[in-house]
Design goal:
alpha+beta; elongated
């Protein structure tokens, strides 16, 4: 096997650390992610209008039909370039479920660090 074949056949090792800061909703309302409880005083449509007014095109609103506590999640689109939506949401919802109730709106500050390790031929 030549060195060229070796460098092409080895995939780089990629891992992600996710640091999450959860806190109760307050003004100004938007950070990285907001989880809207099913009985929260503000619903997904009102959240959509608010984010469109504050930061047009910066956030994606995702309906969470299969969740017990949260009805929707609002995610900064730039985070979705770092991690797939499903992986990011599963971690944030899992942690949000531990501290929130259906009548809460929870915001989350997310810091994602991507670790990449690659080998090169010398």
């Amino acid at each position: 096997m030549s060195s060229k074949e070796t460098s092409q056949s080895i995939e780089p090792l990629r891992k992600a650390d996710i640091a999450i800061k959860l806190s109760e909703f307050e003004i100004p309302p938007m950070q990285d992610i907001m989880l809207v409880g099913k009985k929260a005083p503000i619903g997904p449509e009102a959240v959509r209008q608010m984010v469109d007014a504050i930061s047009p095109g910066q956030y994606e609103i995702i309906r969470l039909n299969d969740q017990e506590i949260f009805e929707a999640a609002v995610i900064k689109k730039s985070l979705l370039k770092l991690l797939p939506k499903e992986k990011l949401l599963s971690v944030v919802i899992e942690e949000g479920n531990r501290i929130a109730s259906e009548n809460m709106v929870v915001k989350a500050q997310i810091n994602i660090t991507i670790h990449i390790s690659r080998m090169v031929d010398l």
